[in-house]
Backbone:
């Protein structure tokens, strides 16, 4: 069993998909959390000055989705075919584009403008891509479903009802939160405001 | 042999990694190019209103890196292990972050500011990640090496000498351009200014 150490900030953010994937397989890991106010003094120690990173047996790996894909393979949460993986990766990158340029400063006007102009069309597209399927991939859960939950949680802090017009995406979120290992993680994880 | 149709604009941009990957395996594909001035009338026909898309036997797939990863698997240009793939994916996403927020309007002041503040640290990190290795993965070429070339080409249009302080990244670019199938593609592709 490899030794895992996740380093991220003391909030959910981009680190949470990695925590979900490790929790899903009941994998023990060190959940190292740096206080955001202390970040300046640590930044230069990390690849490209960014978090999260995952250490696997002492080797440091960076980039959220690269780490996520690695763990998803181990967890059996990737596609059943290369074409399924293509579809799953497209959903993941669409969600990632959406959250990457979100105005995380939380400025109310900027959030509203972004959501109206860019956010809502993405949600409409994701709702359509999900369609009548249970999960994004069809009849089996993948890490794209998890990423929808961890990403939308962050945005909901700033605009709580932003998914209200998308009942399928709301139902998907609930389904993920009810996966037993995820429900257990949500219950035991450190409480942070976002 | 599946039928491939790539739809993108009449320039290299984000479409070029897909063209590289198809060219590398000598795969025939329809290279459909939409004039940027005509885009507004076509935009709503494409998933999330974005290009490139690749049609495979009539089914439309979106997101550059999702498509790229699928084709790279077919081409034998992914990692030799899951950990190699993690490293390769991290390089790909780092390059992608770099180009995604680049000020593509080309405003001279914005380009200079972005490159000084964000671009150069990324280049320094990539130069370090490459180190003394021949390719990003080590002793074998992957699509991360290709993505470095197609992405840096776009930026070079606006700031021609931006890689000058990174001899290893420059040498890598030359090595990719000398891969016989890539060299042949570069020779026969439509000439566009960027």
Residues:
């Amino acid at each position: 069993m490899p030794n895992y150490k996740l380093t991220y900030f003391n909030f959910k953010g981009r680190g949470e998909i990695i925590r979900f994937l490790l929790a899903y397989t009941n994998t023990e890991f060190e959940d190292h959390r740096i206080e955001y106010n202390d970040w300046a003094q640590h930044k230069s120690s990390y690849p490209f000055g960014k978090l999260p990173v995952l250490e696997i047996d002492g080797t440091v790996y960076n980039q959220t989705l690269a780490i996520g894909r690695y763990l998803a393979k181990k967890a059996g949460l990737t596609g059943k075919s290369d074409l399924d993986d293509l579809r799953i990766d497209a959903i993941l990158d669409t969600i990632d584009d959406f959250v990457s340029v979100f105005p995380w400063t939380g400025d109310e006007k900027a959030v509203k403008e972004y959501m109206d102009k860019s956010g809502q069309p993405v949600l409409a597209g994701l709702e359509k891509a999900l369609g009548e399927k249970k999960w994004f991939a069809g009849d089996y859960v993948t890490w794209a479903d998890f990423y929808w939950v961890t990403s939308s949680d962050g945005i909901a802090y700033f605009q709580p009802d932003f998914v209200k017009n998308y009942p399928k995406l709301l139902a998907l979120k609930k389904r993920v939160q009810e996966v037993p290992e995820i429900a257990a993680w949500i219950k035991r994880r450190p409480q942070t405001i976002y």
Q: What stands out?
A: Chain A touches chain B through 33 residues (CB under 8 Å). The longest strand of chain A covers residues 4-9. Chain A has a mean pLDDT of 97. The helical segments of chain A are 16-24, 39-42, 64-75, 82-100, 108-130, 143-158, 167-177, 180-188.
